[in-house]
Design a protein that fits this description.
The mean pLDDT is 91. The strands form 2 sheets. A 5-stranded mixed β-sheet has the order 5-4-3-7-6. The chain has a two-stranded parallel ribbon with strand order 1-2. It has helices spanning 9-38, 47-71, 125-130, and strands at residues 5-7, 73-75, 91-96, 102-108, 119-121, 138-143, 146-157. Helix 1 runs antiparallel to helix 2 (47-71). Helices cover 38% and strands 25% of the residues. The chain has 2 domains: 5-75, Helix Hairpins (Orthogonal Bundle), CATH 1.10.287; 78-157, Transcription elongation factor, GreA/GreB, C-terminal domain (Chitinase A, domain 3, Roll). The longest helix has 30 residues, at 9-38. It is an alpha/beta fold. The chain has 3 helices and 7 strands.
Length: 159
């Protein structure tokens, strides 16, 4: 975790909501189930106890991860980007690849990337290729299938 965790305000809220849900709702429920199961005697064949302890470890691991990510989070508001004619973090970019497919992506933080929803991480190969580009620029991106040329068609910054 040597670099800052750049994130949008909505991405930060999503991480905080997940942390709150795990810590304040799900974990206490699992703790009560484990306590009840432990009182039933033999724990070696008690499914509620075994599954509950496993789930508690998963929750605690995720809570530690989320706390570390939130600790180094740097919120970037895309609408405050002074240079809106270039691609930077938070930009929504429409581009055309060499197969004449038009795609639209939003460049977001690592923790909020969802490629199926058009959100790509700022450290992904496509985002790195698009960075600092302007409308009309041709950029090269290296993919597992080989190199691809992308033409930037549109850049916008939404709040």
């Amino acid at each position: 975790m040597g670099r800052p965790n750049y994130i949008t305000a909505e991405g930060l809220k999503t991480l905080q909501d997940e942390l709150d849900h795990l810590w304040k709702k799900e974990r206490p429920e699992i703790v009560s189930v484990v306590s009840w199961a432990a009182g039933n005697g033999d724990r070696s064949e008690n499914g509620d106890y075994i599954y509950g302890k496993k789930r508690l470890r998963e929750i605690d691991r995720r809570v530690r991860f989320l706390r570390k990510r939130l600790e180094v989070a740097v919120v970037v508001n895309p609408s405050e980007q002074p240079n809106k004619d270039q691609v930077f973090f938070g930009a929504t970019v429409e581009y055309e690849n060499s197969r004449e497919e038009v795609k639209k992506v939003r460049i977001v933080g690592e923790d909020e990337a969802e490629s199926l929803k058009g959100k790509i991480s700022w450290i992904s190969p496509v985002a790195r290729a698009l960075m600092k580009g302007r409308v009309g620029d041709l950029v090269m991106v290296r993919t597992p299938a080989g190199e691809d040329e992308l033409e930037i068609l549109r850049i916008s910054y939404e709040a």
